[in-house]
Amino acid sequence: MWFIATNLALWVMLVGQGSCQQNFPRTTCGGEMEGDTGQFASPGFPQDYRPNLNCVWNIKVPEGRVVFLSFRFFALEMNARCMYDHVSVFNGRGKDAQLLGKFCGTFRPGALVSTSNEIVVKMATDDSTENRGFLASFSSGEPHKQSKLSTTCNLVDVIVANLKITLH
């Protein structure tokens, strides 16, 4: 099986009626979330977010644990320096919290891990060019341990050269 990608971003969204229904989390502009796992999305997801947003999600897992954060879908206005619409993720709370990353565009960020039991996600948008936003999930884990990832493929070679992706 061969796939050739001709663009840097490729995503598929199925829209229509039928027996398959996706339940998205309730979308609010920020909030407090506590627990071992959870899911949240930008306001209005899967529809476009609104302009001029400033949302803050404070995520807290049980003491002695760390936060694993992953974005399942990500589509914001693109800018090389993420100056307009962006999502920033911080390691903990407070003014001295370390910035783990600032993200925009349609390239989905990789998994992020905190060093404490708290992580903060901030979304800011300007007054033009909206997009679908994001869908994210978090879980708690033990510090200094790798996340358990399942691999079911026998052999997958991904070669990014001249935007060519090869799967065996």
UniProtKB/TrEMBL annotation:
CDD domains: CUB. Keywords: Disulfide bond, Repeat, Signal. SMART domains: CUB. InterPro entries: CUB_dom (IPR000859), Sperma_CUB_dom_sf (IPR035914). The keyword Disulfide bond applies. Residues 29-141 form the CUB domain. This is CUB domain-containing protein. PANTHER family: CUB DOMAIN-CONTAINING PROTEIN, OVOCHYMASE-RELATED. The keyword Cell membrane does not apply. It holds the Pfam family CUB. Residues 1-20 form the signal peptide. It comes from Eptatretus burgeri (Inshore hagfish).
